[in-house]
Amino acid sequence: MEQRLNEKLVLIGNGMAGVRTLEELLKIAPDCYDITVFGAEPYGNYNRILLSPVLAGEKTINDIMLNDASWYAENGITLHAGKAIRKIDRRRRKVIANDGTSESYDRLLLATGSNPFVLPVPGHDLPGVITFRDIKDVDTMIDAAQRFRHAVVIGGGLLGLEAANGLKQRGMNVTVVHLMDTLMERQLDASAGGMLQQSLSERGLNFILGTETQEIIGKQRVQGVRFKDGREISADLVVMAIGIRPNIELAKKAGIHCERGVVVNDTMQTFDPRIYAVGECVQHRRKTYGLVAPLFEQAKVCANHLAQLGYARYEGSMTSTKLKVTGIDLFSAGDFTGDDTTEEIVLQDAKGGIYKKVVLKDNRIQGAVMYGDTVDGAWYFHLMRSGTDVSDIRHHLLFGQAHLGDSGHGGTNAVAAMSDDMEICGCNGVCKGDIVHAITEKKLFTLEDVRAHTKASSSCGSCTALVEQLLADTLGSDYSESPRKKPLCPCTDYTHDEVRRGIKEHELKDIPAIMEYFEWKTTNGCSKCRPALNFYLLCAWPSDYTDDYQSRFINERAHANIQKDGTYSVVPRIWGGETTPAQLRALAEIAEKYEVPTVHITGGQRIDMLGVRKETLPKIWGDLSKAGFVSGHAYGKAIRTVKTCVGSEWCRFGTQDSTSMGIRLEKMAWGSWMPHKVKMAVSGCPRNCAEATIKDFGVVAVESGWELHVGGNGGVKVRATDFLCHVKTPEEVEEHCAAFLQLYREEAHYLERTAPWVERVGLSYVKKRVVEDGADRRELAKRFHYSQQFAQKDPWSERAAGIDRHEFIPLKRVV
Amino acid sequence: MQATGREPNTADWIEVGGLEDIPRLGARVIETPAGNIAVFRTADDEVFALRDKCPHRGGPLSQGIVYDKKVACPLHNWSIHLDSGLAVAPDEGCTAVYAVKTEKGRIYLSLATKSD
Ligand code: SRM
Ligand SMILES: Cc1cc2nc3c(=O)[nH]c(=O)nc-3n(C[C@H](O)[C@H](O)[C@H](O)COP(=O)(O)OP(=O)(O)OC[C@H]3O[C@@H](n4cnc5c(N)ncnc54)[C@H](O)[C@@H]3O)c2cc1C
Ligand code: SF4
Ligand code: FES
Known about the structure:
The structure holds two protein chains of two kinds. Chain A contains 25 helices and 39 strands. Helices cover 31% and strands 21% of the residues of chain A. In chain A, 47% of the residues are buried. Chain A is elongated and about 100 Å long. Chain B is mainly β. Chain B has one domain: Rieske [2Fe-2S] iron-sulphur domain (Rieske Iron-sulfur Protein, 3-layer Sandwich). In chain B, the strands form two sheets. Chain B has a six-stranded antiparallel sheet with strand order 1-9-8-4-3-2, with no helix packed on it. The N terminus of chain B is likely disordered. Chains A and B meet through helix 16 and strand 39 of A and strand 1, strand 2 and strand 5 of B. FE2/S2 (inorganic) cluster (FES) binds next to loops of chain B.
C-alpha cells in the first residue's frame, strides 16, 4: 500500500478534532497522503468528553478510547505518541519534536486544542494543584481520592461541576469555589443556576460563590485555599477549572497569524496556505469553540479541502450544552440573557424542579435554558438553528413538541429517567440500552451514526428527539449536524432547496445534468437522491420531462404496493368513496377471476385486493379499466384518497353537498405526483365524519360555505390541521386547494409531508401565498392545472396496453 | 459465505436474454426451480446476479433501486453490494452470488455455482 509519490500530511495534536479530520479525509480520499501524527499525550486517540464519566467511576479509560494503535497501522498512519512538536520550520516545511524527531510536510494540520487556564496566584504550582483536561489529570484525581479527604474545585462552570461531582462520587468532601454568584453563568440564568445549585447541594457538594481566590497555601503539598475576604478552607487537592485558552504558542512562534486563536478562513486554512488548523486552537470569524460538535463540522470542511475537493465551507456554528452529571437534567443553547429587543417566555415550577425559558427575537428563538425537564431541548435547538418563525406556535411553545401529538411517546419524561429496556424506537424495536450501548461501544457521535447502526429513528422518525436526547445525555452536547445546511443526501453537500433552485435557474432538465452541475460525489446517486431529483424535475418541467422509472421506488415503478411476500396489492380509485352496485359487482367478479386471496375495505374508503402476483398485474388492470376504474395511486407519493361523508344529500345535519365536493376535488387532483402522499377529505358539517381535520387538505362544510384546513395527518404522529380560511363557493374551494397543492409541490422537500412542511415554513407563509395574495393564488392554481394536463393519464390502462412490459414478466424461466 | 472468484465450466452457462432486456440501473428476474435470481445491469453495462432474497427479511432485491454497484432493498432499504452479495456496512448479512457474463450483447448465467 506504500505509495511514495503521495504528498505528506503531518498532524500536530492527536486529539478529537485532528483525528476526526483524518477520519473524514480517509472516507473521501483514502490514498491522498502519507500521514504522520504527533501527539503530546502517550496514547492513541480518546474521547476527551467522556473523562467526566471516567472520573465519576461510570466508565473506564478503555471504554473511551476512540482509535487505538491498530487503527493507525491499518490506515498506514505513522503515530508518534508522546512526542510534542516544539518547532515548525515553515521555510524547510519541517516539524521538529522535543526528542529531535523531525518530519517534513507538504501540508500541515494544526490541532493542538487548548490549555486549561491556571490562576496565577501564589501556590498555584504546589503539588496537588491540577487542572481537568486529560487522562493524566483524571488519574491524579482518582489517586488523590484514595489518599485524601478534602477537594476544592475552583470554577463553577461545566467542567468544574463535572469534576466536583466525580470527586464526590469517589468519596471526597468537595467544595466548589466560584467567582460569580451563579453557577454556570455562561450557560444558565440566575433561576436555573439556583435550581442547579440546590440539587447539587442535596447531593452533598458545598458551594462558596461570589468569592475570589487569593492564594493556595501549603508547604510540600497543597494544604488549603485562602480567599480575598480572608477566609480559609483546607484542601488536599485543588482542581482549577476556570476556563481554557487556545493553545497557540507553537503557531505563534512559527509566525502564523494568531489572535486569541490561530486565525483561519472558511476553508480552515491559516495565514500560511500549506497549513490548516481545526479544533479549539482555532479562531474563526472571531469566535473560538470549546465543544466538539462545531469542531467536527470544521473537521469535515477541512478534510474536504485537504482532499482537494475544494467546495465545502465552514460558516460558524451554534452550540448547545448539557451537563453530564447523571440524574441532573439541564440544557442551554444560544443567547438567553436577552435585551430590550427580545421577549422571554418562562415556565417555572420551583417545587416540581422544572424551569424553562425561551428567548425570542422577531418571533425566532434566540436561546433557551431548561432545567428538570429537557426533553424538548433538541426541538428548541432545532427551531433556533433553522430560524423558524414560531409565531404560530408560541402560545404552546413551552409545553413542548408533544402538543403536536405523539402517539408513541407523548408524555414520556426525561429519557435519562427511562430504564435500559424501555423502547425508544417502536418501528424497529430498539431499546434505550441498545442505543446507549451503540453510542459508547461503536463510538457514535451523530444522529445519522445512530440511525445507521441501530436503526433507531430511521423509519418514522418520531423518536428522533429522544435519540438526540440520549446522544446529548451520553456525550454532553448536541451532536446533530447543523440543519441550516442539511445536504439532500450523502452524495452531495447541497440542500434540497439549493438543488430545486438550481434546476429552475440553470434549466437542468434531467438527473445527469443535475449531478454534473452540482458535482455529485457519486456516479449515479443513491436510492435517496434519485427519487427526489426525479420528482423535482417532474414538478419543474411538467411538459417536457420524461420520468426516469429506474429512479422510482418499486411501488411507483410497478404502480402497486409491494407486500412482505413480494406480491402486490391493487387499490382502484373510488371517487370520493362513493360506489355503485355495478362497480361492486365488477370488483367482485375481477377478484374472483384472479383468485385474489384477500379483499379489504381500506381506511381510505376504497377496496384493496391483496396478494396479486406481479405478472398478473397488467391483466387485472386491463379488466379494471374495462369496468371503468383507474389507478388509486395507493402506492405513490401522490394524491391518494379524498374521503367524504354523505353530507346534505342524506344526512339530517349536512349543510353542504360534501360528497360532490369531494369527488370534484379528486377529479381535479388525481394523478398528480407529490413530495409525499397527500390525503384529502370533505365533511358535510363540523361533526366532521370524514375526519377532514387530520388530512393534508381538509374541507368542513358550514352553513355559510366551506372551512379549509391544511397540514394534518393521522399516522405515527397525529397532527390536527391548521385552519387556513373560510370560503363561500365550490369554485373557491377548488382554487385554494389547487394553489395549496402546487405550493407544496414546488417548495416542500421530497418525503416531507404537509404537516412538517407547514411547521417548517409557518402557517402565516402559507396563508400569505394561498389566501392573502389572490394573484399569487391564481398563478399557483394555474400551474397546478397546467401540470395536470400531463399527469392525468391512467398508468394502469397504459400498462395493460403493453407499456413497460418488461417490468412485469421474468426475463427467463429455467426449468 | 465466499461467493466470488469461481469460473464455472462452459457447459454450465445458460443464455438468459439480451443486455437490452434489462433497463440500465435496473434488474430482471430469472425463475428457477431453486428460487428466483435477480440479474442487474449497472449504468456502465456491467451485469451481476444475486439470489433474489435480501439477507434481512427476504425482500426481492430485483425490485430495488440500483445505484453504483449496489441495490437498495425495496422492503426496508438495506443496500447490498452486487459483486459480493454482502450488505453495505453497518448492516451485516450476505446473499448468494451467481456467475454471469455478457458476450456479444447476450447474457449468460451459471446456476452451478450457488454458494448458500
Ligand atoms: C391499505 C391501507 C390500510 C387498510 O387496509 O385500510 C393502508 C396501508 C398501508 N399504509 Fe396506510 N393505509 C391505509 C390508510 C391509511 C390511513 C387512513 C386514511 O388515509 O384516512 C392513514 C392515516 C392517515 C394519514 O396518512 O395521515 C395511514 C397512515 C399511514 C402511514 C403514516 C403516515 C404518516 O405520515 O405518519 C404510513 C407510513 C408512510 O407512509 O410512510 C402508511 C403506509 C402504508 C403502507 C403503504 C405501508 C407500506 O409502505 O407498505 C401500507 C400499504 C398496504 C398495501 O400494500 O396496500 N400508512 N394509512 C389504507 C389504504 C387507504 C387507501 O385507500 O389508499
Ligand atoms: C473533562 C472534559 C469534559 C468535556 N465535556 C464536553 C462535553 O460534554 N461536550 C463537548 O462537546 N465538549 C466537552 N469537552 C470539550 C472537548 O473535549 C474539546 O472541545 C475537544 O476535545 C477539543 O478537541 P481538540 O482536538 O481541539 O483538542 P484536544 O482534544 O485537546 O486535542 C489536542 C491534542 O493536541 C495535543 N498537543 C498540543 N500541543 C501539541 C504539540 N505541540 N505537539 C503534539 N501534540 C500537541 C494535546 O496533547 C492534545 O492531545 C470536555 C472537555 C473536558 C476536558
Ligand atoms: S397500520 Fe398500515 S403500515 Fe401498519 S401494518 Fe397496518 S397497513 Fe401496514
Ligand atoms: S428485507 Fe431487505 S431490507 Fe428488509
